[in-house]
TrEMBL record:
<dbReference type="InterPro" id="IPR011335">
    <property type="entry name" value="Restrct_endonuc-II-like"/>
</dbReference>
<protein>
    <recommendedName>
        <fullName>UPF0102 protein A2639_02040</fullName>
    </recommendedName>
</protein>
<comment type="similarity">
    <text>Belongs to the UPF0102 family.</text>
</comment>
<dbReference type="InterPro" id="IPR011856">
    <property type="entry name" value="tRNA_endonuc-like_dom_sf"/>
</dbReference>
<dbReference type="InterPro" id="IPR003509">
    <property type="entry name" value="UPF0102_YraN-like"/>
</dbReference>
<dbReference type="Pfam" id="PF02021">
    <property type="entry name" value="UPF0102"/>
</dbReference>
<dbReference type="GO" id="GO:0003676">
    <property type="term" value="F:nucleic acid binding"/>
</dbReference>
Length: 150
């Protein structure tokens, strides 16, 4: 599996997870000159109950764990993921301060281009996925509000 295929699989799993959790997917793979936002989502409107107006900009990090014949795990990552660390590595740890700042800038650009008010509430979330190819299993961890906006 190539890193592109791995990334696409991780984003598809993350979208499925978000939809099951009550989100509408507003946009995917939003690209501008200096980066990309994997998923943009918002909680579905509820007729009765509290409605969350926050726009969620979601960064997906995926790791493929394979266990070769020698029994030592190895990883291939497009991004990253959590669960048990693979040789001490959690994919969501790749969303460092520099990446968070870039995501925030891209989120604000997306909001402006889509005619949301300047102070519209948003947050940056991270989905970490660890895929074990040998047992065809994926573990997904959702980290909400790793970077707050407005």
């Amino acid at each position: 599996m190539s890193t592109k295929e791995l990334g696409d699989l991780g984003e598809r799993l993350a979208c499925e997870y978000l939809v099951k959790k009550g989100y509408n997917i507003l946009d995917k793979n939003y690209r501008i000159s200096f980066g990309e936002i994997d998923i943009i989502a918002r909680k579905k409107f509820k007729l009765f109950g509290k409605n969350d107006k926050v726009i969620h900009f979601v960064e997906v990090k995926t790791i493929l764990q394979t266990i070769p014949k020698n029994g030592r795990p190895s990883i291939l990552g497009n991004s990253n993921s959590r669960s048990e660390p693979v040789e001490g590595f959690f994919p969501e740890e790749k969303v460092d301060y520099k990446k968070q700042r870039k995501l925030r800038q891209m989120a604000e650009i997306w909001l402006g281009k889509n005619k949301f008010k300047q102070n519209y509430p948003y947050q940056i979330d991270v989905v970490g996925i660890l895929i074990n190819e040998n047992i065809r299993n994926a573990k997904l961890h959702y980290f909400s509000n790793v970077v707050s906006g407005n």
